[in-house]
Amino acid sequence: MKRRVERIAAFVEDLIHDRRPCRFKAYPEELQALRAAGVLAGTRPGANLPDREFIDQVCASLPERMSP
Fold first, then answer.
1. What would the mean pLDDT of 10-19 be, rounded to a whole number?
2. Do the Cβ atoms of 48 and 42 come closer than 8 Å?
């Protein structure tokens, strides 16, 4: 049981610090906590905006894509 709590805690910690959580096979009783953590992470201001790295990549590729 302790291992499950540690996995959920690590998952939540990754979300808090805007990191991609490690993948693992969740037990059915863990799913509700993981979903709640994901929903809460999505409510942070700016969570619905693309990250700066993505915008920079798109901007860098536009001139190449726009040239005839």
1. 89
2. yes
Residue 14's alpha-carbon distances to 24, 41, 67, in angstroms, are: 13, 10, 40
Per domain, the residue ranges of the chain are 2-66
Model confidence over 24-62: pLDDT tens digits? 888 888 899 899 998 988 888 888 888 889 999 999 999
Q: Which residue has the tokens 């700016």?
A: 46
pTM of the model: 0.61
| DSSP result, 1-68 | -HHHHHHHHHHHHHHHTT-PPPP----HHHHHHHHHHHHHHHTSTTTTSPPHHHHHHHHHHHHHHH--
Q: Which two tokens stand for residue 8?
A: 């959920």
Average pLDDT over residues 5-12: 90
Longest dimension (CA), the chain: 60
